[in-house]
Specification:
Layout: H1 3-26, H2 29-56
Helix pairs in contact: 1-2
Length: about 55
């Protein structure tokens, strides 16, 4: 996994966590759900990068 991809995935996950937290704090379930979705998307991208790394070796 390249450093750029790893940093991007970490940033996306952090952004999703912030959205989820803010959504819960203000009672906006849609925003909280968007945050959870962004975190899940980041996790999937990271898993895909790990698979690519394993296949390269």
């Amino acid at each position: 996994m390249s450093g750029t991809d790893k940093a991007e995935n970490a940033g996306d996950k952090a952004k999703g966590k912030v959205k989820e937290t803010v959504g819960k704090a203000v009672g906006n379930e849609r925003l909280a759900a968007e945050g959870r979705a962004e975190q899940a998307k980041s996790d999937l991208k990271q898993a895909g990068e790990h698979v690519k790394d394993v296949l390269k070796d």
